[in-house]
Each structure stands twice: as C-alpha cells, then as structure tokens.
Write a sequence for this structure.
C-alpha cells in the first residue's frame, strides 16, 4: 500500500484536492486488529468548496499516471481506492482533524478513532455497529472527545440507542 | 462460564491485543494477505457458479419485483429467503447498490441488503451472525443493513428492489 499512498500524496501535492484522510475499514485498522476489506476509502476536502464536488480531476490525474477504473474505485497499485468527498460537517471535521502518520516513509493521514466511531454510528449498517463495538472494547477512544463529537453533530441520541442495544444487553 | 470458555476468551483477547499493537504497515500487509486469499476463493467459486441468472422464484417477493429479479446477477431462492425472513421477524427484505444498478462485480462486490422488521421485533447481537447464513443463500458476500444512515438514504431509496415482503 506504500505505493498507493504515495500516489495519493502526489495528488494532494499537485493541488487536485485540499486535504485527505484514510477512513473506513482501513482507517479503523490503524487502531484495531486488521480486518478483511478490499477498498481503501480516502475522504477528500476540496479547496474553495465547489458547489458540486466532482471527482473527475482525481480520476483524470490517476488515469494519466496509468491507473485504471475498477467499478466505482480506481485501482492504484493493486488497491481499489474510493475517493469520497467529505461533504457533511462530520466528515469535514474528521478530515480536518485527522492525525498525520508516516507509512513506510510516505506521509499520510488517518481519521481519529473518535471520528471513525461517530461516522460508523451515523452510517449505521450492521458492519458499522460491529466496528463500533470493536472500538468500544478496545478502549482506544477518548470518551470525552467522542462525547464532544457526538454532541456537535447531533448523534448523542443515536449513541444512547446504540449503547442500549449493543452494550448494555451484553 | 466454564474454565475452558474463560481460557478461550482470554486467548482471543490476547490475540486481539497482539494484533492491535502491530505497526500499521504490518497490519496492512495482513489485510493484503486476507484480500489475496479471498480473491482466490471467490475466483474458484466464480468459475464454477458464474453467470447465474434466474427469474423470480415462487413464494417470495412477487408483484412488480419480478421484472427486477430476472435482471439480478445473483440467484435468489425465494423459498429459502422466505424461510430466512419468516423465522427472524423480517417484514421486508430489499436489495440495493451495485447488485441492482448493473455494475455488480461478482468477485469484488458485496450484495447490499436492507431488512425491515415487524413491529416489536428488534434483534440483538444475533443480527451480526445472520449475514453469514444469507451469504450461503445468495452465494455472495452480503452487507446486511437494518436501517440506512441519513446521508445514504436519499441515494438508495430509488433503487431498492424488494425480494421478500410478508403478505
């Protein structure tokens, strides 16, 4: 994945988008045990916030460097990469506050554990709840930071429902 | 809890902690090995079962959904789906995403499934185990959803294809 992240870094350096961060299952893998997944989800912010965010410049940039489209992703050095505009306030904040990391010499960013949890809660599929439980059990998240995010994005009620359904019953 | 069960859980916990503590690049290499294994398994099963298409099976869904059923790239066994839903208090089961849009990749794509429950039938932990059984029925990896997130709903509402609905 080093080469894949290097290409994504090149995109950012070229100014195709403003800032990006790894989210989804590969973001969660930074904090938790590895999980089986096929996609690398990259959430991107666009400088100047166009009215209709388009991924065309990203696709054009990568196609010009020899990478091909595979379904709704772009295959970059073996990894299907899905670029997702960070459109909602929660996603935007998650990208803005993502932590800088070094992946075998390539600079990149991963969303914080607390933001990944809030996004999983908001997305609300079965696998998101399972990931959320894994985060809770791992103890990697800071409770007050998470509470602040949930409060800011109107997810406190959803969290209470999640707790009632999946944590207090066990 | 029996001592053996406690010991097993402790081993699982230790393994999880050990994996969690690995450096990120090492974790990614584990994911890549899992991907390679999954692709190998899917390519084998795809070679044997690929290209299956079957019209609406009797006993499930019905009505206008039959047109969509005939186009689905996965085989839907109506009787088994009805049995699955009936025993779990599922009022309606629908498909969405690539499987109904036409860009379904038999190797990479999950079958996105949305279930709605009968009033008062809210599952607990057992919900997480259901996907595996549904995968055996549909012959593909399944992404089972009990509701859709608010920012996803508007994008998929128009493409839901009901494959089971309680009469």
């Amino acid at each position: 994945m080093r080469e894949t992240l290097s290409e994504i870094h090149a995109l950012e350096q070229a100014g195709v988008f403003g800032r990006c961060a790894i989210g989804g299952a590969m973001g969660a893998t930074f904090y938790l045990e590895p999980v089986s997944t096929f996609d690398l989800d990259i959430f991107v912010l666009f400088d100047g916030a166009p009215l209709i965010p388009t991924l065309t410049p990203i696709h054009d940039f990568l196609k010009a460097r020899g990478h091909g489209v595979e379904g709704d992703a772009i295959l970059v050095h073996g990894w299907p990469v899905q670029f997702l505009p960070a459109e909602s306030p929660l996603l935007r904040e998650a990208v803005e506050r993502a932590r800088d990391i070094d992946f075998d010499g390539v600079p990149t960013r991963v969303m914080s554990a607390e933001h990944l949890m809030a996004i999983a809660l908001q997305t609300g599929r079965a696998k998101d709840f399972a990931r959320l439980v894994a985060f809770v059990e791992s103890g990697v998240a800071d409770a007050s930071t998470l509470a602040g995010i949930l409060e800011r994005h109107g997810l406190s009620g959803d969290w209470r429902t999640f707790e009632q359904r999946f944590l207090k019953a066990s | 809890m029996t001592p053996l069960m406690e010991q097993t859980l402790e081993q699982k916990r230790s393994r999880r902690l050990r994996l969690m503590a690995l450096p990120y690049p090492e974790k990614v290499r584990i994911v890549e090995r899992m991907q390679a294994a999954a692709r190998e398994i899917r390519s084998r099963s795809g070679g044997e079962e690929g290209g299956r298409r079957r019209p609406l099976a009797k006993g499930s869904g019905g009505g206008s959904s039959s047109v969509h059923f005939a186009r689905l790239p996965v085989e839907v066994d109506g009787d088994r789906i009805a049995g699955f839903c009936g025993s779990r208090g599922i009022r309606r089961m629908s498909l969405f995403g690539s499987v109904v849009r036409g860009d379904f990749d038999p190797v990479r794509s999950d079958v996105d499934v949305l279930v709605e429950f009968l009033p008062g039938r809210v599952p607990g932990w057992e919900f997480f185990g259901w996907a595996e059984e549904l995968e055996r029925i549909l012959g593909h990896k399944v992404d089972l959803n009990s509701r859709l997130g608010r920012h996803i709903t508007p994008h998929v509402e128009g493409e839901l294809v009901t494959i089971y609905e309680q009469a």
About this structure: Chain B has two domains: 3-49, 65-165.
